[in-house]
Amino acid sequence: MATDIAFALGVLFLLGPKVPLQLKVFLTALAIFDDLGAVLVVALFYTSEISLWNLGIGASILGLMCLLNLLGVRRVLIFAFLGIGGVWLATLLSGVHATVAAVLAAFMIPADRRIDKALYLESISELTKKLKIANKADKDKYLLSPDEENIIGEIKRISKASISPLQRLEKSMHGLVVYLVMPVFALANAGVVIESDWLQMISSPVAMGVGVGLFLGKFMGIFGLGMIGIKLGWYKMPKGMNTSMLLGISFLAAIGFTMSLFINSLAFSDQDLVEQAKMGVLMASLVSGLTGYLILKRAIVK
Q: Beta-carbon neighbour count of residue 21 at 10 Å?
């Protein structure tokens, strides 16, 4: 399970600017839902004991976060404190894997703005006029007058209010996640030791089962169900996409790394089986990525 968004999109971007935007959006959305599915699998199938008391506390705090969102609270620190110190910690103590708590807590962070775009533009226009008038009244080159400070402070306030807390949090954490969290997570879950018997590892039942399951499972699930839905009229092929592109994307989606390896570490207790399963994921990802790349390259050139 779980498409690795970074690697799948990386392969897609190797094809250059001719890749349709719809294809990028489809793969991104697919990978996100796939990750959410993987999180649910972890929560439902890899939990040995459950503390209903701690789970209830976590659910209550999650409900409080939802209420604060509805009441218009927009302080990111409040949601961070409740999400990490409340929902995540309580879920961890309950026995349910805390990954699901992080996803649920993220859903509670407000995604709407206090000031919409039209009001923001109108307010900025008025404040700019006031700033020009205040600047004419005070010709000091270096220091701002009290009026200028107040106007600039108001511009800063409404600019912050025009961006949703979710977007502000995403932007502020982007560097930390990309350059620290993701590499550490990937390296911690990879840890494959390739020894002289690596061919035997690849051909083991566990490696073959995981690898073939990932490779064929994504193809059957995405391309198979996609084409069935299109034929039955449940939905239409996105503009700019065709059957070959859908086929290529279904193989690219079989690139699994972080979450796939993470689930492997939970599924097996025997270290030898863990290593074999990791090898299966890596081999399936390599073959899937190459297959998807070649199919999409031919489809996009056409």
A: 10
Q: Is residue 207 part of a domain?
A: yes
269 and 210 part of one domain: yes
What φ, ψ does residue 254 adopt, rounded to 5°? -80, 0
Tokens in use for 73? Answer: 């609270």
Whether residue 47 contacts residue 95, with contact meaning beta carbons closer than 8 Å, is answered with yes
Residues 6+ apart with CB under 8 A from 255: 3, 4, 7, 8, 11, 285, 288, 289, 292
The per-residue pLDDT for range 55-106, each reduced to its tens digit, is: 899 999 999 999 999 998 888 889 989 998 899 999 888 877 777 788 888 8
In order, the DSSP letters of 94-116 are HTS-THHHHHHHHHTS--S-SS-
* Alpha helical stretches, state H, the chain: 5-13, 21-45, 52-71, 76-82, 89-94, 99-107, 117-137, 146-161, 165-176, 182-190, 198-202, 205-218, 225-231, 243-252, 258-267, 271-301
Residue 1 vs residues 4, 38, 40, 158: alpha-carbon distances, Å: 10, 6, 11, 43
pLDDT value for 132: 86
Closest CA to 10 of 267, 276, 272, 255: 255
CA–CA distance, 235 with 228 (Å, rounded to integer): 10
Decide if 82 is inside a domain.
no
Among all chains, which residue has been given the structure tokens 């090898």? Answer: 279
pTM of the model: 0.64
Residue 131 vs residues 89, 107, 138, 152, 253: alpha-carbon distances, Å: 48, 39, 11, 8, 52
Cβ atoms within 10 A of the Cβ of 11, count? 19
Structural domain that includes position 138:
117-163
Averaged pLDDT, 255-279: 84
Domain assignment present for residue 138? The answer is yes
Stated as kind and residue range, the H or E segment containing 222 is none
